[in-house]
Amino acid sequence: MKTPAAIALFSGMAVMTGLAPCPVHADPSAQFVNAGGYAAVEADRLWDAINEALSEASPQSALLPAADIGPMPLAVFALDMSEPGLERVRYRIRYGTNWIDAPPSAAPLPISYIEVVRFNLGPAIRDDLIGTLGDEHVAGEEEFGVGPHVGWRLMTRPIMGNRAMIMAAGRMEIGATAAQGEACLGSPCLDVRSPIETAAAWGELEHAGAVSRGPWPDRSGNVVAPAVATDLLLGEIDDIETDMAPSEPKIPDWAIEAVIDVNLGQDEGLDAVYRWDGLLDGSVAAIWERLASFSTGSGEPTMFRARAYECARGPEFAPPGEFCP
User: Residue 46 is part of which domain span?
Assistant: First the structure.
């Protein structure tokens, strides 16, 4: 998903900042993008690079190209735009909102915290094949994708017509040992078997129709891009409803976890799911939604969707197509 402009902008940003940690202050933005091995990236330069990469999709618009993108797809696009492409990956997206007191007479303001980690599953898939077929029957490492596991964190807020203006950003490369300890929907993130199929009581996947181009660069192919899948699943979410009064800025608990698997099987394909818990609902404990896009050879992405409800009482999940008691 890199464009030459995005590469140039991000390269300049990396040189100027050195991707070096900024001093950690008491405010949550500094804590969030510097904690746990993350190193702060200059937010304004990242915002400019994103809009430059998206500019071809809306050259005549009076608004910035990223103005109407929600926090989670924006974060996925930031990662994919900034990092070398990999063919076989798993994304884990985590999201939370903190409502803060706005200036006098203004409505409370939602601050979004997003973490996106992209795990390179190429080496794990290759090792699994070697265990089954033998080393002599499996292609070399470069054929499966060579590159680090990498995480990005963004803090965004709505401002001046932009749904998710970047307040702070950070990046981290994750070592192999650390990645082995990471969980995606309760399963090891480096497991070559997808956790999605058995994560919830899915009904039949229903055909979802055509894919809207939206603000994304034109990318022909048989499968939707990860940022587009995130937009289709979670693009309308700017905040999380809460019954708590607005407070001082603080890093919130994660309310949404999403996983996107890309090309883990023999054929080209994408499978994505999110779980949203902490709902203000006495019946539904969590909402699950799934989007799958598989190659049909037509040159146009084909999509299927399903939804499941995790119950607060009674059965763990409502029967497919029904609601919780």
Answer: 4-311
